[in-house]
UniProtKB/TrEMBL annotation:
InterPro entries: Mem_transp_PIN-like, Na+/solute_symporter_sf. The keyword Transmembrane helix applies. Pfam families: Mem_trans (PF03547). Gene3D superfamilies: 1.20.1530.20. Belongs to the auxin efflux carrier (TC 2.A.69) family. This is Transporter. It is a multi-pass membrane protein.
Length: 308
């Protein structure tokens, strides 16, 4: 199990390093990175979420119980972070990065690790996890950006507009609609969306590496600590309690724990850049959590899996 998790994390770490090297060497102009982030946010990431939800195979999976556990734990931890904001004592834009670091998850690592642990059934369990968490975290994050992003607090009508027009949220609900309806995707469209979604992963991680500002590394310790404590300890513990509350057990419960203990996603950086968060700090949290996950993720699964 540990080997499967480390194998899934290694290419992510290497892509972040490559992005940092490309930026440091000025291999690409600075204008490229801004355009790459825009492409990822409006085209590639929506394609990834839409395709993943629309084509998921959910046969034989305890869908209702697993979704209940994942949504419940995500909302509870989000409320805990919001309640602790005054104790975190940092500026609002930085808080959005800690918030994303605490509740978002890396789809790539999750799917790879679930497949390595449970084979074909792991893919189905990963699909349910994506169906539950992706819309939830995107709605919650947009609401947090609306209040704490650098653009300032938005009126309620503008928050609703942000939610209604957010490309990631729209993609999640459109993909869910296709899944529920059973319509499927037209021939030719499905492989195109799959290819676009796959492109989002390496490009997003290269952008994360390019955004790293190593001169600010001393300022990362507290926010990285807060977000990692939430991600690797608090979130799994709340998920474990939710498994008992909603009577989820076996492989589905282990998969729920796995997904809620994953390092935060590269899309966190893209969202921070587009919605007025602290993007350099977000890049630092992503990089640090990816490295920490090599130790934290196997430990969480090995210790907590015996309680479900």
């Amino acid at each position: 199990m540990t080997l499967s998790l480390l194998t899934a994390l290694l290419p992510i770490a290497l892509l972040i390093v490559l992005g940092a090297w490309l930026k440091r060497r000025q291999f690409l102009t600075d204008t490229f990175w801004a355009q790459a982030e825009r492409l990822a946010y409006y085209v590639l990431l929506p394609s990834l979420f839409f395709h993943g939800l629309a084509t998921a195979n959910l046969d034989g999976v305890p869908f209702q119980s697993m979704v209940s556990v994942l949504v419940f734990s995500t909302v509870v931890v989000s409320l805990m972070l919001l309640g602790a904001k005054s104790l975190i004592t940092m500026d609002d834009a930085a808080f959005t990065s800690v918030f994303q670091g605490g509740i978002r998850f890396n789809n790539y690592v999750g799917v790879s690790a679930a497949a390595g642990l449970f084979g074909v059934q792991g893919i189905a369990l990963a699909a349910v996890a994506n169906a539950a968490i992706v819309p939830s975290v995107n709605i919650l994050c947009v609401m947090v950006f609306a209040k704490y992003g650098s653009a300032g607090r938005m009126p309620f009508s503008k928050v609703l507009k942000q939610l209604a027009l957010n490309p990631l949220i729209l993609a999640c609900f459109a993909g869910g609609l296709i899944q529920v309806s059973g319509w499927g995707l037209p021939v030719g469209i499905e492989p195109m969306l799959k290819a676009l979604g796959q492109a989002s992963l390496p490009l997003g991680l290269l952008c994360v590496g390019a955004a790293l500002e190593f001169g600010s590394i001393r300022q990362w310790f507290r926010p990285v600590g807060y977000s990692s404590l939430t991600k690797f300890i608090i979130m799994p513990l709340v998920t474990l309690l939710a498994c008992h509350l909603f009577e989820l057990e076996g492989k589905a419960a282990v998969a729920a724990l796995l997904f809620q203990a994953l390092p935060t996603a590269s899309s966190s950086y893209i969202m921070a850049r587009q919605l007025g968060g602290d993007a350099p700090l977000m890049a630092g949290i992503i990089a640090c959590q990816t490295m920490l996950a090599g130790l934290a993720l196997p430990a969480v699964i090995l210790v907590m899996a015996q309680w479900v």
